[in-house]
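Final report, closing paragraph on structural work. Over the funding period we assembled a curated collection of sequence-structure pairs, and we close with a single example.
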Amino acid sequence: MYLPRLRDLREDNDLTQSQIAEILGTKQTIYSRYERGFQNIPLEFLLALSDYYNVSVDYILGRTDNPHINI
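Its predicted structure, as stored:
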């Protein structure tokens, strides 16, 4: 599953893939695969990023354009 908002959120916060990977406790190469859609992001990472960026999971998944409302 390709999630372009993962990259957008990271870049909007001036963070590198390595920094996000460190927050998640994984390697940069693995996180890169999530951003590019080569590997599905685990639910626990998705939830952690939702909390970190203070946006809804639905926003990250592209189900809404409002970052703070869950469907």
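The helical segments are 4-12, 17-24, 28-36, 43-53, 57-61. The radius of gyration is 11 Å. We thank the funder for supporting this effort.
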